[in-house]
Amino acid sequence: MTQKLKLPDNAKDNRVLLHSCCAPCAGDLMERMKESGIDVTIFFYNPNIHPKKEYEIRKNENIRFAEKLGIPFVDADYDVQNWFKRAKGMEWEPERGIRCTACFDMRFERTALYAHENGFSLISSSLGISRWKNMDQINDCGLRAASHYDGVDYWTYNWRKEGGAARMYEIAKREEFYKQEYCGCIFSLRDSNDWRVKNGREEIKIGEEFYGEVEIDKKLTVTKEPACSLDVLDKDRGKAGHDSCQLASLPMDKGQKK
Ligand code: SF4
Fold first, then answer.
1. How many domains does the chain have?
2. Is the CB of 121 inside a 6 Å radius of any atom of ligand 1?
3. Would the N or C end of the chain have less CB density within 10 A of its end CB?
């Protein structure tokens, strides 16, 4: 067993409402909290994920693991239109830029509201475990969302510590999770595909990548229809001043090992 997690000093009880972005990122947090005797509930609110089929796959994978561990799972709205409203004007921002701040804000605001309405005093998120994310940016958003409610705090734990980042991959492989190949929104899908094409790789095929050599679950496999309306996005490309995909040169977050 890994080292036991200790709740922060400001924890008022043993409960944590954990915003989960996906099963691979949340897997280690879920296991560690459970093993540490923390009363964790998963809050799945990710209207950023596009297309809906990708959203359903990621959500179902998370439900599958929550059920296995006996962790309650709150399935929040897929209010994608609100997400697009919030991202308006930031369509060509690079990953880790202001669109991502707005995206984290939106997801954490809903998490904090649910915590407030349902008696949770501590929230956190799996988003920070990924080495491709800026942990300070995520923590700022979490703290800002929690500050709207008396009695709700955001737990700024570094989930990559104590082998967390490595265990994330081990668990994903062991559990044969679906392996998403882009952050989540239509714009990250577009930019990931741009980068892949420029680097001689095939475009992302939604629903086909799993960790390990496993049979693809037919229930989760989707058709090969276009992943998003990239033609529509392309029309605006010149106007928006998009230069090139940022992913190729995107550094890992400070101090993280690959
Ligand atoms: S790249 Fe990821 S974090 Fe940024 S806006 Fe898109 S889905 Fe949200």
1. 2
2. no
3. C
